[in-house]
Amino acid sequence: MKNKIMDKKVVMYFELLHKKYEKLVTISSQDTIEEELFLFIKEVSHLLPKVGFIFVPRQYQLFSLKKDLSENMILNDKIDLYTNTQFSDFHSSVYSSFSSEALFFETPNIMINIKGMANAYFSELFQENTLVKFVDTPKEYVHCIQNWHPNQLEFRKDNNQLFEQNNEESIQNFLKILQ
Fold first, then answer.
1. Given 85, 92, 151, 159, which is the most exposed site by the fewest CB atoms within 10 A?
2. Is 70 helix (H, G, I), strand (E, B) or coil?
3. Where are the domains of the chain?
4. Which residues are within 8 A (CB) of 113 and not within 5 positions of it... i.e. 6 or more apart?
5. What is the pTM assigned to this prediction?
6. Contact, 131 vs 158, CB < 8 A?
7. What's the rounded Cα separation, in Å, for the pair 112 and 118?
8. 110 - beta bridge partners?
9. Pairing between strand 51-56 and 23-28?
């Protein structure tokens, strides 16, 4: 996914978004917490009008909260989560397993601790990861977006701890063992 060739229309779409907004944040949702997460991001979007929030609902056709959105709140079910995240400055979620995949794309995570779920699911896994922040309130989220500037060296160091290196070679070796 990281090396896939992007459709030119998709690239142009994100270039336009980057011109319009200072930062882009992709939010991956979960069915059980979707309404609370959406309302949290909706509140944050009013506080950060120069940031584009790309909310990726689980089932867009069933998503009942799509009315009366601020201009910087974008519902996107047409472009997959992986592509959205590659073009974003941050990824946010409550407990989506995609949070670990976002790090593979060198996109830092802001975990939203609604009902204590982000901490319950990820605090141990990400406790020493400098590319993941946990927030409890919209005010903390805004502060994080405005003041957190992770650097690329941190990405590479922390990603090496999370992902198997040379995984294609490891898979080939594993397949040889099975034969």
1. 151
2. coil
3. 8-178
4. 94, 119, 134, 135, 136
5. 0.82
6. yes
7. 6
8. 92, 133
9. parallel
CA 23/CA 29 separation, integer angstroms: 19
CA trace torsion 155, 161, 166, 169 (10° rounding):
-160
The one-letter amino acid code at 65 reads: L
Classify domain 8-178 by CATH number.
3.40.50.2000
Tell me the two tokens of residue 138. 């919209």
CA 138 to chain CA centroid, nearest Å:
16
Residues with Cβ within 8 Å of 98's Cβ and at least 6 positions away in sequence, in order, are 28, 81, 85, 91
> Which phi and psi angles does 135 have, rounded to 5°?
-130, 150
What is the per-residue pLDDT across 86-131, written as a single tens digit (0 to 9) for each?
A: 999 999 999 998 998 888 888 999 999 999 999 999 999 888 888 8
- What is the spatial distance between Cα 158 and Cα 128, in angstroms, rounded to a whole number? 9
